[in-house]
Task: inverse folding
């Protein structure tokens, strides 16, 4: 006999879990929200917000350090007060976390259970310190944990992850960052701009998850032009906090080297938090990659009344996708066995590097070369970008022969954070390239660069239609 019976139990009070519980309650279900760690969400506590706060300080330092090219002279070298930078990061971060804590505190005590949950039956959970909960349906929204690659095994106990970085009392002298995803690039460039000696050791094939080789190489050359970005084929580490950490590397081109670092930070992806949930007691098994198989549309795990939401799905690891997952999983859990698959938003992922990087719409790798055309712009000579001294970057836009629709884009360039939104909205609307070109473009703005790429794409789409009405020739490889 369970200590408590509810309609929907949600494991994990992150952005996905909070939204799942709220949605299930709105659908009329009784709920419990179970959290094993500190409340406040990964995004606000150790993710999106503190990383963007660090980047804001780095931008300020970089702006002052490079003001000379605009004829603005600053006396003496820029001095960064590392302790003050991190103090502001934590102060502002705590404000954001405070809003989440307020919303959790508003929950009635019977809804909020603080303790780790694990399955003890198909929909029964044991919650540390609270006995057992029997639910009609369960949402697993347990998030993810930084992955520490095996190459770092010799120093595993000393490796920093993003959570640790924001708690340092002062900026370190040096950090070797292992990983090439958006977290590695954002943190690496920010630390570099704040005067920390940094090298990023990225896997040769991954840079901010870019799939388009032209944009990926543009990103490698722009970021690599500013800081040490090594596309590694091999890495060996040794050492300890007293002597420092020796990193020996070998890159794709055959170059190699070694250097000693104060810290090594792992930003090489994240692993879904599924260990310790005793999923076998719910009749569920992980696949060979350690993921819990589920329907990406309904988020249901097999036929069970169990749904996944957020980073634990190991799909997108993006905040707005996690909250959308929460909404879908919460509704489906409340209405189980009736489940639905609401439409999803166009894909949009942004790395807040400088220049910024974004991916929009369809995966480049999934595009059919026979029916896809590519338009591009190089920001080197783009008017507004030159005015701002930010004239670097490449945008590639993809369109469909026949329909003329915009399918997606990969981009690195000035203010891509904003232009990527315009393109993502257009992809979601199903707009054609010609429809987009009929919209207003003010002068002088960076959006004019996007217009150039769309004009290039429009011309190629006209040709593919004229040459082959079925669009069977050419494609991304042309
Ligand atoms: C450094 C960094 C920067 C980022 N920047 C951005 C950005 O700029 N934009 C963006 O869109 N996304 C960003 N992200 C990604 C974003 O933060 C995540 O996609 C999002 O926070 C995932 O939310 P979630 O609810 O799935 O997980 P979480 O917020 O991690 O919530 C999961 C919760 O489950 C709890 N839990 C786990 N196991 C159990 C258990 N057994 N019992 C009870 N509770 C449990 C955990 O304690 C945790 O509180 C960033 C991430 C990082 C790390």
Result:
């Amino acid at each position: 006999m369970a200590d408590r019976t509810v309609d929907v139990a949600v494991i994990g009070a992150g952005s996905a879990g909070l939204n799942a519980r709220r949605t299930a309650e709105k659908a009329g279900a009784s709920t419990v929200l179970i959290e094993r760690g500190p409340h406040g969400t990964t995004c606000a506590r150790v993710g999106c917000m503190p990383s963007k706060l660090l980047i804001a300080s780095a931008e300020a330092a970089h702006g002052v350090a490079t003001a000379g090219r605009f004829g603005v002279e600053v006396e003496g070298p820029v001095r960064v007060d590392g302790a003050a930078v991190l103090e502001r990061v934590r102060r502002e971060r705590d404000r954001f976390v405070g809003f989440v804590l307020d919303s959790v505190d508003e929950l009635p005590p019977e809804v909020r259970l603080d303790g780790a949950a694990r399955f003890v039956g198909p929909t029964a959970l044991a919650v540390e310190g609270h006995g057992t909960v029997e639910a009609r349906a369960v949402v697993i929204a347990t998030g993810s944990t930084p992955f520490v690659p095996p190459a770092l095994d010799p120093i595993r106990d000393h490796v920093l992850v993003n959570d640790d970085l924001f708690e340092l009392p002062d900026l370190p002298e040096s950090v070797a960052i292992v990983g090439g995803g958006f977290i590695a690039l954002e943190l690496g460039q920010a630390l570099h701009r704040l005067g920390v000696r940094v090298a990023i050791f990225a896997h040769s094939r991954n840079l901010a998850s870019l799939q388009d080789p032209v944009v990926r190489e543009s990103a490698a050359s722009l970021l690599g032009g500013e800081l040490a970005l090594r596309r590694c084929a091999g890495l060996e580490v040794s050492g300890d906090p007293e002597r420092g950490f020796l990193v020996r590397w070998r890159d794709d081109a055959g170059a190699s080297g070694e250097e000693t670092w104060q810290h090594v930070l792992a930003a090489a992806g994240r692993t879904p938090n599924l260990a310790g949930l005793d999923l076998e007691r719910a009749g569920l098994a992980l696949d060979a990659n350690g993921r819990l198989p589920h329907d990406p549309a309904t988020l249901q795990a097999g036929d069970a009344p169990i749904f996944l939401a957020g980073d634990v799905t190991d799909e997108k690891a993006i905040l707005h996708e996690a909250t959308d997952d929460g909404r879908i999983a919460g509704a489906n859990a409340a209405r189980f066995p009736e489940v639905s698959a609401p439409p999803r938003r166009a894909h949009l992922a942004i790395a807040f590097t400088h220049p910024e990087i974004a991916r929009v719409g369809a995966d480049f790798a999934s595009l059919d070369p026979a029916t896809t055309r590519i338009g591009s712009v190089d920001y080197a000579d783009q008017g507004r970008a030159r005015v701002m001294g930010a004239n670097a970057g490449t945008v590639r836009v993809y369109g469909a022969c026949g329909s003329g629709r915009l399918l997606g884009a990969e981009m690195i360039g000035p203010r891509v954070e904003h232009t990527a939104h315009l393109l993502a909205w257009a992809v979601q609307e199903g707009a054609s390239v010609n429809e987009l070109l009929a919209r207003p473009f003010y002068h002088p703005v960076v959006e004019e660069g996007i217009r150039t790429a769309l004009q290039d794409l429009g011309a190629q789409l006209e040709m593919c239609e004229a040459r082959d009405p079925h669009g069977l020739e050419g494609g991304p490889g042309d």
Summary: Confidence is low (pLDDT under 50) at residues 469-478. The first helix runs from residue 15 to 26.
